[in-house]
From TrEMBL:
<protein>
    <recommendedName>
        <fullName>AraC family transcriptional regulator</fullName>
    </recommendedName>
</protein>
Length: 204
């Protein structure tokens, strides 16, 4: 769901240093396999997808909001050929320098068993898109307190999403073997969370 050309070593190094990154997405990729990321993710996407977790799947509307937890592996497959939108990635340390932000990460949007997909109307999308655009502007600004402003925009994204009824259109697995395979893949990813050839296993 991301433009893979920008997800390189420089991009990851900057993300790990600052703890935050926002960017526009424009890709014709087919999705990605089960993986666990290092960062929380919020994105708004124009395009049809199916997201697969170990115990359930979600089929999206043509416009949707997605909340990703780095501790919950998932895969997604693109149904539509073209898709675009905005994505912000952030670390837990970036978002929770205070108790208020810490409580946001315990919201149903990020918790295991919660609903990470919010199908949107065009009017609802018009509420979220400006928040991503403002984060893009602040990200490159010289303002000394821009991190705090970005945290506020993330908080607004979360609160606006909590005001919307979560999508209820779960896409069920066809049979028990699919369910077992998905659980196995999730457990495998938890043991070997490697996303590229230049990453090594944590032997601790």
């Amino acid at each position: 769901m991301e433009n893979r050309s920008i997800i390189g070593s420089d991009f990851n190094a900057e993300l790990k240093l600052k703890g935050f990154k926002v960017y526009k997405t424009d890709s014709n990729s087919a999705g990605h396999a089960y993986s666990r990321k290092d960062f929380f993710k919020i994105n708004i996407t124009f395009g049809d997808f199916i997201f697969h977790y170990a115990e359930r799947s979600f089929e999206t509307a043509p416009i949707f909001l997605f909340f990703g937890n780095p501790h919950i592996p998932y895969s997604c497959e693109a149904i539509s050929e073209q898709h675009s939108g905005y994505t912000c990635l952030f670390s837990e340390d970036f978002l929770k320098p205070n108790e208020r932000s810490e409580s946001l990460l315990q919201s149903p949007l990020f918790k295991i068993g919660g609903n990470p997909i919010f199908n949107l109307t065009e009017d609802q999308a018009d509420v979220f898109i400006p928040l991503f655009q403002k984060m893009l502007l602040e990200q490159d600004a010289d303002y000394a307190y821009k991190d705090e402003m970005i945290r506020n925009y993330i908080s607004l994204l979360i609160h606006e999403a909590l005001k919307i009824q979560p999508a209820g259109n779960n896409y069920k697995y066809n049979n028990a073997s699919s369910r077992i395979t998905s659980v196995f893949l999730e457990l495998l990813e938890r043991q070997f969370p490697i996303e590229s050839a230049d990453q090594s296993l944590n032997r601790s």
